[in-house]
Structure formats: C-alpha cells, structure tokens
Amino acid sequence: MARQRAAFAHPTRRLLILIPGSYAFTWGFIALGVTGLVSLGVDFHEAETAMMLLAFLVFPSLFLWAFASPRPGRAMALLFGGAAFMVSAAWAIQRGLLV
Amino acid sequence: MSEALWLAAAAVLSMHGMGWLALAMDAHWGQVMHSPAENFLRTRGVLRALGAVTLSLSFLACLMADRPSIAALVWVMLLTASALAVALLLARWPKVLRVLCPAT
Amino acid sequence: MSAHFRNTMTWLHTWMGLALGFVLMVCFFFGALSVFDREIDRWAIPQTRFEPQPLPSFDRLLLPVLQRVEPDQHDYAANMPRLHDPTKGPMTPRLELPVDEYWMYTTHRDPVLAMGVGFLVPLPKDPDAHNHIHARTTVDPRSGAVVPDDALKIGSHWFYPMHYSLNWRWRDIGIWIVGLAGFTMLVSLVSGVIMHRRIFREFFTFRPDKHVKRSALDLHNLTGVVALPFHFFFAFTGLLIFASYFYFPVSHTLLEPLHRQHEVLEAQAAGLPHKRSGIPAPLASVDAMVAEAKRRWAARDMAGEVGFLKIHHVGDANSFVSIYRAGSDRVALVGEGIHFKAATGEVLREDPPRSAVSEINEFLTGLHLQHFEHWLLRWLYVLGGLLGCVCIATGFIFFVEKRKAVHAKAGGQGSRVVDSLAVTTVTGMVIAAVGMLVVNRVLPADMAGKGDWEKLAFWGIWVLAMLHAFVRSGPLARGGINPAWREQCWALAMLCFAAVVLNALTTGDHLLKTVFSDPYWPVAGVDLSLLATAGIAVWAARKLALRERGAVKTIPSEVTTRAAEAANV
C-alpha cells in the first residue's frame, strides 16, 4: 500500500509541475514567435494569429513528451529554462521594435 | 431542393462505404455472413476497395451540395454517423447488413 | 512502443480524464444544446416566437432605440472605479456618460436583434486604453419594442455560456477551468489512441451482451474513435477561440506596447481613425450605407445579408460605420467588412481578402461557432456532442466497474464517490437543464427577477440530484449498482414530459400546432427532443432495473486479477 502510494504521488507531482512548465514554455514560444515574425516584417495580428494556431498544438505535445520522459528533472529544466530564455529574447526584440 | 437530394445521396453512400469496410474485416464478416472469413479473401478485398471508393464518392456528393468549407465538415460528420450506425447494426441486427453482399 | 510509455499514457488518461471528465461532461452536453441555443430561447421566451425578419430600417427603427439605452448598472458599479481617474475630477454619473459606439448583431436563426452601446469614461486613468461602460438590449425588429431584461435567454445566455465558462464569472475562473478541461481532452485523445492497441481492428466493435466492464469499454472506444475528428477539432478550436484573450494573453501583457503601437499603425494604414477628433458631426443615413454594402458584396459574387454593424466614435467627425456580411452559407463568421464615413456615407475602405493564416483561423473558429445555415450539419454536431458525453460517461462507468469489487472487499469508498459524481454529472446534469425549462413555464412571464429564479432552480435541482446520488450509493460499498441511476432516469422522463405539457398549457403552442397546423420548428424541435429524451430515459431505466435484479449473480466474476485487468485495456 505504501509503495503504491509513493508510486502514485510521483506521477501526480510530475503532472502538477509539468503542466505549468509546458504552459510557460508555450508562452515564451508565442512571445518569441510574434516578436521574431514582426521583426521580419510580418503584420502584428498575422503573427499573433499564426502563433495562437500553433500554441495548442505545442502545449499538449510538449506536456506529453515531458510527462513520458524517463528523466523528468531534465524535462522540467528544459521547459522552465527555455521559457525564461524565450521571454527575455522576446522582451529584447520588442524593445528594439518600439519607436 | 437539389441540395437536400445531394446530401441524402452523400449519406446513403457513406453508410454503404462504412458497411463494406466493416464486412471486409474478419470478425464482422463472420458475424453477418455466418461463413468463415478465410474462404472469402478476394471478395473481402473487393469490398474494402469498394468501401473506400464509395466514401470518396460521398465526399463528391457533399461538394455538389454545398461550398467546399461546409462540404468538408458535412462529409467528416457523415463518416462518424455512418460508422456509428454500422457498429450499432452489427451489435444488434447484423443480418440487416447482409444486403451489402447478397450473392454470397 | 515501450511498456513504460504505454503505462504512462494509461495513467495520464485515467487520472486526468477522471478529474476533468466531470467538467468535460458539462462542456459537451451544454455545447450540444448550444447548437440550438436560439431555438431554446424561443421556447423559453414565448413573446419571441416569430420568424426571423429582414433587417429593419436602422435610421427609423433602431437608432431611436439605441439612443434611449442607458449604461448597465452592474457594469458601471464594477468598472467605473477601475477606469475613472479621481485626480482629474469627480466620477461622471451613470446617466451622463457620453456615447462612443453602437453595435448591432443578427443571425438567420434569431427573430430578435441584439444591440449594444459603449459609453465613454470622460476622465480615465489611461486615455489610450479601451475605456468603455457597456449596455445591451434586445429588440423586436418588427416594432422596435424592447424585450425585457428579466426574460432570461435560457439557450444563448445560460446553456451556451455554461459550456465555456460554467457560468462561474468570478475572475473568469470558470473559463480557466474549462481551458484546463479542453487541454485534458487533447491529452486524453492522444493518450487514448496510444493505449488502444487494436484501434483499426475494433473500429466497429460493440458487444453490449458482454459483462458491463467489457461493453462499457467497447462503447467508450467506439464513441471516442468514430467521432475522433469531431472531439479533437472541437477541443482544439474551443481553446483557440479564447487563446489570445484568456489563455495566452501575451499581446495584452508582455507584448502590450508592441500591440498598441501596431493598432495605431493599422488604423492609419486602413484610413480608419483610431481616436475621436473632438469635433461634433451628424450621422448620415445608415440605411443607405447598408444598401451600398449589399450592392458591393453582390458585385463580388457574394451577395448576402448584414451580420454585424458597428458605429465607432459616435457623434464625432472621425466617426465611421463598419458593416460586415453574415457568413451563413460558409464556415467563416462575419466578413467582407466595408467601412463608411459616418458624416457623409462615403466608402472609406473595403476590407481586402484575408491572408492564408487569417483564412485558416476564420475557418477553425467558424467551424466551432457555427453561424452557418445548414440544418443537417447542425444535427450532426449535436450527435458529435452527445457522443462525447457517452464517451466520458462510459469512461466513468468503466473506471468504477474495474475497481468496485476490489474496493468493496477492502472497505474503500473510492468507487462509491466516483460513481455518485458520475450520476450527478450524467443524469443529474440533464435533470437540472430540463428542470430549469419546467420552472420557466411555471413562473409567470412578467415576474420580476424571473431569470434569477430560473438560475437558482437550475443549481438547486442539480445539488439535489447530487445529494440523491450520494445518499443512494450504499450498494456500491458491496460491489453493486447505485439505484440512483435508475431513479434519476425516471425523474428525467417525468420532467421532460412535464415540460412539453406545460408548454402546451401555458402558451397554446402544442405539438399538433407547431408541427402540422401552424408550423414553428424552433419550438416543435425542442418539444420533440424533450419527448425523445423521455423515451431514452425510460428505456434506460428499465434496462437498469433488469441489471440491478441480476447484479447479485455477477459480482463474483467481477473480481479479476491484475493481469486480467491490464489485458482489458
């Protein structure tokens, strides 16, 4: 019973961390995508629409990959780290685009 | 009025297509025909091809009825309804599907 | 595919499916009802039971109504303090707020018109933001008479928002929960396909005469797989519709500066003024603009009716009128917008054809929001929604059947709780919806706050159904069947029948009239659907009674080993 409970807690903990993690990565992906496309000359609303179309394909795929990953710690680091990097990059590009 | 006729044709074609695809499968051939599936490999191959062609014709009928964006949706949903109907017939009245392959 | 991977997917599908399945039942069921939301409105508000009308004269009939609309009290109380800057002066009284925009919306299914007004906040904290206090009104287009607010549109203003927000408005938390449920649906579809080893071979398989666990799983797989495109696309597009505003509001937060900058540029490029000029100007004939818009659409080989009309910067020299075509013959919503200078009626801009990305987006959101006129497709959508409900419900049943014998032996209450919650969200939910319709017919039409009482009745009936389910769940602790399933089926049948009878008694629109002598399909459709529901409920109740009587014999065979359980998947 105790072994079952330990085994059960682990996937639940993974789930509770990896859903926000995949969400954060997707957020960064959208931000970087929009600013990147706008800096290449694409219209803002077009860029936003394109990234929204991709968002809910990326988000669940990312989550499924991370959840099934044999190394959940590495997956978590990639997700949150990637999110932080992409958000910073998007912020920097936006600063460059503002007049 | 012709839109309704084309849609009716699409529905009938979809039902036939799904029915033939079902009959081409081992378990369901046995269920409907009460004869061993291994003896009728060629017939079932023909039915499978017929099923695929009929489903494509169903899509063409949908395109005759409506604009392409709507036709695509109608066709996909007709596939769902037909597959469901065939599955329920197989579960409750499998003999009804015998009309799809009367010669055997 | 490794066993570990499949087991992980199984765990996800089971536990995320269980936790969010209760929410998904609400989304699929009320989503299915929403296909015919406006028809349900007609049933609930008898004074609107007439045919959809051509758009009446804006100048003569609609403008006078709009000019009499007052800012909504709740919106003013909630948002004025947030938007008004107290350092610039005292808060403008509600009835003195200046008008900034008018809008009007209609569909081919709606006899009544929805209209709204946006009022400006004169002294705002952030002058560049969208500072509006709103008001809405519903109008009979034949006379301009206003439909009273107390008449709740049970279809479009209760069942429809139920499916995307659970009608839980506090900080939009309901929308977030539904978002998580939609995400779970996508995860469950993918994990379900991965788990289902014989997906092609068992495409048509349904064995109702096997024991409950096998036939429930068969039905779960069948309804999940044959409607897989529907389930995937509705979950995906539902999330997409709310993506940019609620779920990933990147352009309203991190990228807000870039967004604002772009809006100004876009307005300049389009020649459509972004701000008021401060110089007053009159409004030219909007009817003439509507006529010109229809002429231009016909010239482009897409003749159509007006779906949406909006007047920006009302009363100002920069005011412009945007007129959009109703997309009732295609999937995309409203489109082909034409914009007119309000003071003179000249065309400022005709929206160009959409880019590929925009077309894809319009197609996807349009296929979910269904403004098209195609009765077969609408009924097929209802089928899809109900198949989704069956898929989730059979998922619950399989979960309980697989564990209840083991739990009964160990004295655990898990399957008892899950089963009671399943009753609540399957039969209980339908009882609440139909019960609300019954209450709608019982309460007098001119009762003050009738809508609030109907909402209270909905929640109250649902809570009662839940209590009933839990109280009657004793047999689960012994590995048996909860009699609440059967009892609620009977209750549902009686309520459906009562609703139809009450409609006939209180409005005189009985089925013989609405089908034969004076056809009115919106009401006939609702009545016939209620009768069909009653029929299915009675059939189910009798089947359940037979199973309950036979249940004692089948319990020993339900105690399976772990290996046998795994093989069932």
Topology:
The complex is a heterotrimer of chains A (99), B (104) and C (569).
Chain A: H1 2-39, H2 44-68, H3 72-97
Helix pairs in contact in A: 1-2, 1-3, 2-3
Chain B: H1 2-23, H2 26-33, H3 41-65, H4 68-92
Helix pairs in contact in B: 1-3, 1-4, 3-4
Chain C: H1 3-34, H2 37-44, H3 58-67, H4 73-83, E1 99-105, E2 113-120, E3 132-139, H5 155-165, H6 173-195, H7 212-226, H8 228-247, H9 256-270, H10 286-299, E4 306-312, E5 320-326, E6 334-341, E7 347-350, H11 356-369, H12 375-410, H13 414-442, H14 450-471, H15 484-507, H16 511-517, H17 521-558, H18 562-568
Antiparallel strand pairs in C: 1-2, 1-4, 2-3, 4-5, 5-6, 6-7
Helix pairs in contact in C: 1-5, 1-6, 1-12, 1-13, 2-5, 2-17, 6-8, 7-12, 8-11, 12-13, 13-14, 13-15, 15-17
Oligomeric status of the shown chains?
heterotrimer
Structural class of chain B: mainly alpha
Q: How would you sum up the major sheet of chain B?
A: none
Which value, in Å, is the CA radius of gyration of chain C?
27 Å
Mean pLDDT of chain B: 92
In total, the number of strands of chain C is 7
Biggest beta sheet summary of chain C: 7 strands, antiparallel
Distance between the termini of chain B: 38 Å
Shape of chain C: globular
Strand segment tally of chain B: 0
Low-confidence stretches of chain C: 552-569
Describe the structure.
- The complex is a heterotrimer of chains A (99), B (104) and C (569).
- Chain A has one domain (20-98).
- Chain A is built from three helices and no strands.
- Chain A is elongated, with a radius of gyration of 17 Å.
- Mean pLDDT of chain A is 90; it is low at 1-9.
- Chain A has helices at 2-39, 44-68, 72-97.
- In chain A, α1 runs antiparallel to α2, α1 (2-39) runs parallel beside α3 and α2 packs antiparallel against α3 (72-97).
- Chain A is an all-alpha fold.
- The longest helix of chain A has 38 residues, at 2-39.
- Helix content of chain A is 90%, strand content 0%.
- The termini of chain B are far apart.
- Chain B is elongated.
- With 569 residues, chain C is α+β, with helices and mostly antiparallel strands.
- Chain C has 18 helices and seven strands.
- The interface between B and C is medium-sized, with 26 and 29 residues.
